[in-house]
Amino acid sequence: MNLPLGSLSGSGPSSGPWAGRSSWHALDELVRDYLLFRGFMPTLKMLDQEIKVDKEKGFRPDKIIDHILSLMGSHDLSGLRELWAHLQTRLFSRLEHKEAQAVSKLETGLFKLFVVHCVQTKHPEKVRTFFEVMSAELQSQSEWKDWFVLPFLTNPETHPTFAPFFSRHWQDTLLLSLFNLLALIYACLPPPKLADFRTSQSKIQTLQEENEALRRKLREMRIRDHRERPPSVPDIQPPEDVMDDFFIIAPESAPADVTSNTLKSFLRNITGTSANSSVVSASERRTAKPSSQLGTSSSSTSLKQSKPRSSSKSRVSHAPVKRLSQTSLNALPSASSTPNLAKSPAPPLSEPSSSPYPAPQDSIAYLLLSQEEYLEHQSEITHCRFSSTGALIASSDIDGVIKIWTPTPNPITQSTFIAQSAVTALDWVPTSDRHFLYGTRNGTVRFCDQVERKTQNEIHFEDQRTIRVLACSPNSNICALAASNASAELLTVYDLKTMTLLYELSDSTPICEVTSCSFNHNSQMLITSGIDGKIRIFDLRKQDCIASWMVHDQPISSSSLSLDETKIFALSQDGRFSGWSLYQTGQKCFDHQLDDPYYGSIKRQGVWNNQFALAGDGTHVLTCSSNGGIIYEFNTDEMTKVLGLKGLRNNAACTDWSAINDCGPCITASSAGQITISTLLSQ
Questions:
Q1: Res 447: pLDDT
Q2: Are 407 and 667 in contact (CB under 8 A)?
Q3: Using CA atoms, how far apart are residues 90 and 12, in angstroms rounded to an integer?
Q4: Cα angle vertex 178, ends 173, 180, to 5°?
Q5: Which of 184, 195, 201 is nearest to 24 (CA)?
Q6: What band does 638 get if pLDDT is binned at 50, 70 and 90?
Q7: Sheet holding 534-539: strands in order across?
Q8: Contact by Cβ (8 Å): 354, 631
Q9: Which helix (H) or strand (E) holds 444?
Q10: Tens digit of pLDDT for each residue in 269-325?
């Protein structure tokens, strides 16, 4: 039940060059011109032949209706059946169950119209042929049980059972309904990439023009700042120890040059700078020295005194890189800077989309490369989850809309699903980017295939249970399902292939409302958190709770296993972020209070269970905040803000972070339907 009408996929019928399918002829000519240019004459002839016999008439519903009427006019039953079978395979099989029932009624009405037309044109032999050919299919359908007597009636148009079908009103209504159905489906089919390339090309050109305009503005501001500087202020040379951001990434082996060139090429593509320029390193900030040593310190001395980020990486002196702007230097304290620098700062270009915080050891672990917005949702976001490869994102809202989309380079919707009520649980099947699960407020769970755009299986709870949590195991075909209603809480494990109940964990252990679940690597343990402030560990082999302890006196909004599966991290609703040993259950590793109005003074809206996401290094975490997300670096002693990801107009509702590579990305979603995708670079 994958594709509801009006939401088959893509961005809808009114977006881009695909709107109205007015560009079909232009696309055909484009393909024809390419084949002619390449000399593929047999393929070109085959294309022309296929276009001539196109059953869908260039996706024009009016032409399809005309073709159906012509088949009826010639009493071509086999042609009508062949056309309907093509539409069924090509289009109607991709609809949800409720729309499929409407299609079935249209099919029945269409064949009844064929019989009526044969009677009206006085071809009784065609009526008898129809029932001889179709009797095997129709005899089991209740809609046709009265129609088998029609060939034996003298005046069927006067019979009370058949008279309505001979009216002009019924016939016109049937054809109009079929026309509207085809028009709506064609309007919502996802456009091919060939139809979208002009929009992408135009957007790239616009971005390039904007980048060039910003560079010109930056040059003009630097020139104006230089002219307005008082004569008493001497020109300050760039610090000698500004290093290239990516110098420390290159390995010491022979392929180092290739790696360095690749990274610099990657940075050039993003920033649009020349081959001889690079970004000023935010991670190479130096600890300030006494003023008496500023004049005598050399680049090599500064490098020796700076604290290395990792003991396994050695720093080698090399020529300083060209600076992009004075604003970059103003934002970074340098060992060779003087107090006069602060007296003439460069004016800011715009409000930044990120705000770096003073980080441990004066280093910034992440650099914000870009931010994009995804605005396809019209209501409060309930979940946003990366697939296992990080190539796709599934997001849902309280209106029951689920979007599958790609985050980079530009957010593009791949498919859309619509549920009957608010989506309250969502998770990807980790083994591929194809399947995912979602649960709703009215107690429905569906196992979906986003490639085929259909629901493969579903279960439904009749006792008004809300699906709270869905969590798929990493290496087996099982999933944990937590649900609740006014009288009881439920924690179960289901088989994903058959959607059958394997065991019910809440039978042996009384539980409260579950807020999050996670499996360990071999799917033999299930860790849950609840609104009673407790963490529970279930042994799935024994089907019993083997450990539980109180984390906080406030409800736990989210919990997660560490990547090495030695700790359990928990975040309570009042902002207490704590770590607990998995092997020595109940032993606290650390406990920190997040300093953000999101957990205190403001009134939050739309708080769901994905309130934090761990980075791949296991020492950084992204949390929701009052206007976006905040990245913290944490250890047993302290928790320090590293980077603020702004951009949301409301408080964040949920978040996620893809740890596939060093560039993130990470996402934050708001209670107003806005999703921000931030691409980061680990330094």
A1: 94
A2: yes
A3: 19
A4: 95
A5: 195
A6: confident
A7: 514-519, 525-530, 534-539, 544-550
A8: no
A9: strand 444-449
A10: 444 444 343 333 333 433 333 333 433 333 333 333 434 433 333 333 333 333 333
Residue 258 has pLDDT above 50, yes or no: no
User: Can you read off the two tokens belonging to residue 329?
Assistant: 């230097």
Q: Are 428 and 417 in contact (CB under 8 A)?
A: no
Alpha helices in 74-192 (DSSP H): 77-90, 97-120, 124-138, 168-188
Q: Residue 606 is which amino acid?
A: G
Beta bridge partners of 569: 560, 579
Question: Which pLDDT score, from 0 to 100, does residue 344 have?
Answer: 37
Q: How is residue 104 annotated by DSSP?
A: H
Q: Are 628 and 638 in contact (CB under 8 A)?
A: no
Q: What's the per-residue H, E or C state across 311-353?
A: CCCCCCCCCCCECCCHHHHHCCCCCCCCHHHHHCCCCCCCCCC
Q: With CA atoms as reference, report the closest residue to 83 among 97, 65, 101, 95.
A: 65
Token pair, residue 388, equals: 């296992």
Supply the mean pLDDT for the chain. 76
Token readout for 662 is 């060093």
Cα three-residue angle 360-362-363, rounded to 5 degrees: 85
Radius of gyration of the chain (CA): 32
Structural tokens at position 262? 């690749």
What span, in angstroms and rounded, lies between the C-alpha atoms of 8 and 64?
A: 20
- Measured CA to CA, the distance from residue 385 to residue 570 in angstroms comes to 18
Lowest mean pLDDT: which of 70-74, 452-456, 604-608? 604-608
Strand partners, 437: 427, 447
DSSP 148: G
- Predicted structure pTM score: 0.51
Q: Which two tokens stand for residue 471?
A: 């969590």
- Return the amino acid letter for 655: T
**411 contacts: CB under 8 Å, gap ≥ 6:** 372, 373, 374, 405, 677
Q: Is the dihedral of CA 26, 32, 38, 43 positive or negative?
A: positive
The conformation of residue 648, written as its DSSP 8-state character, comes to -
Q: Which distant-in-sequence residues (6+ apart) come within 8 Å of 387 by Cβ?
A: 393, 394, 428, 433, 436
Rounded to an integer, what distance in angstroms lies between the CA atom of residue 42 and that of residue 45? 5
Distances (CA, A) of 80 to 11, 51, 105, 133, 183: 33, 19, 16, 13, 19
Beta partners for 527? 518, 537
Distance CA(457)–CA(329), nearest Å, equals 57
Long-range contacts of 439-446 (CB under 8 A, 24+ apart): 439/467, 439/468, 439/470, 439/481, 439/483, 440/400, 440/466, 440/467, 441/466, 441/467, 442/466, 443/467, 443/483, 444/419, 444/420, 445/470, 445/481, 445/494, 445/499, 446/1, 446/417, 446/419
Q: How far apart are the first and last CA of the chain?
A: 45
**pLDDT score recorded for residue 230:** 61
pLDDT band at 607 (very low <50, low <70, confident <90, very high): low
> Which contiguous run of DSSP H or E holds residue 630?
strand 628-634
Q: Please name which of 391, 388, 460, 448 lies closest in space to residue 418, comparing C-alpha atoms.
A: 448
- pLDDT digits over 406-461, tens only? 987 789 999 999 998 999 999 999 888 899 999 999 999 999 999 999 999 999 98
Q: Cα–Cα distance between 670 and 653 in angstroms, integer?
A: 5
Query: Partners of 229 in the beta sheet?
Result: none
Are 649 and 670 in contact, with CB atoms under 8 Å apart?
yes
Can you give the pLDDT at residue 259? 45
Q: In the predicted model, what is the mean pLDDT of residues 530-535?
A: 92
Which has the minimum average pLDDT: 321-335, 483-497, 498-512?
321-335
Cis peptide bond N-terminal to 409, omega within 30: yes
Tell me how far apart the alpha carbons of residues 134 and 142 are, in angstroms, rounded to a whole number: 14
Structure tokens at 470: 């869905």
Cis ω on the peptide bond leading into residue 290 (within 30° of 0)?
no
Average pLDDT over residues 612-622: 87
517 has which bridge partners? 528
